[in-house]
Amino acid sequence: MVINADSMQVYRDLAIITARPAPDEAARADHRLYGTVDAAENFSVGRWLAAATGELASARETGHLPIVIGGTGLYFKALTQGLSDIPSVPPDVRARIRALGETLTPAELHARLAAVDPETAAGLRPSDPQRLLRALEVLEATGHPLAYWQRAGRSTPILDPADCAAVFLSVDRPWLRQRIDARFDAMMASGAMEEVARLAARNLDPALPAMRAHGVPGLIAHLRGEISRDDAVARGKKDTKAYAKRQETFFRHQLPGFVSLTPDEARGRLTALLQP
């Protein structure tokens, strides 16, 4: 059983632009948590953890080997280290704070957060409005900064890396950059522009996670006539490469139980583990 741990491949609207497994690939094994969420939803790490916990239980009950795969380091951290026990935010507070995302730029949101919660702001990128809004709503609802709750304690981990084959694939960076370029070109040839046009037609909140998937903002800007197609593609490739670099840093520093291996090394280790 293959369980998705990619925060963008969960969205139904983003099959092509996230290179979600194609139907013929998905038919080779039971795939879970792919394309199960509407783009209008704010799918959080907490919701993913609850869903993944259920899928792991299902795998155990049916005798299947669960393979959790994806590039969202925060999902793996929650799975193996637990999740901060942050109180729920009342709907009225969430709506009031989320409305700021429609009137303020990400840089302005970051400045506002820095003024009231400099510790949390220091750990967030000014270009990440979703997490900035999350930090502001937690502070508003609880009276404590997000960093306070992150230190206060975590839920019990679902998996112990010592009991799993916990692997992060480490590849040659020039090769990875070439692969990112080739994959983006392949997605464009497969209808990524048309897919993003359908998403843009829904007029969703631009702060939603699905609206910030790599490639989506640039292609929407092109559809609005703001930039050329070539510039939109270049932006998508650049954003993906920057994320890949952050990805490696996160796995190396935030997931100490994971072993960094080349694809060939990982294949050998996993094959050996699966031998009867």
Structural descriptors:
276 residues; mainly alpha; Rossmann fold; Histone, subunit A; 2 domains; 3-stranded parallel beta sheet; two-stranded parallel ribbon; 13 helices
Task: Give structural notes.
The protein is mostly helical and 276 residues long. The chain folds into two domains: 202 residues, Rossmann fold (3-Layer(aba) Sandwich), CATH 3.40.50.300; 62 residues, Histone, subunit A. The protein contains 13 helices and five strands. A three-stranded parallel β-sheet has the order 2-1-3, covered by helices on one side. β1, α1 and β2 form a beta-alpha-beta unit. α2 packs across α3 and α11 packs antiparallel against α12. The longest helix is centred in the last third of the chain and has 26 residues. The model has no long low-confidence stretch (mean pLDDT 92).
Which outline best applies?
A: globular
Total strands: the figure is 5
Class computed from helices, strands and strand pairing: mainly alpha
Total helices: the number is 13
What is the overall pLDDT average? 92
CATH superfamily of the largest domain, called what? P-loop containing nucleotide triphosphate hydrolases
What is the strand arrangement across the widest sheet? Answer: 2-1-3
CATH class of the largest domain: Alpha Beta
The residue fraction in helices comes out at 55-70%
Largest sheet: 3 strands, parallel
Q: What low-confidence regions span 5 or more consecutive residues with pLDDT below 50?
A: none
CATH architecture of the largest domain: 3-Layer(aba) Sandwich
First and last CA, distance: 18 Å
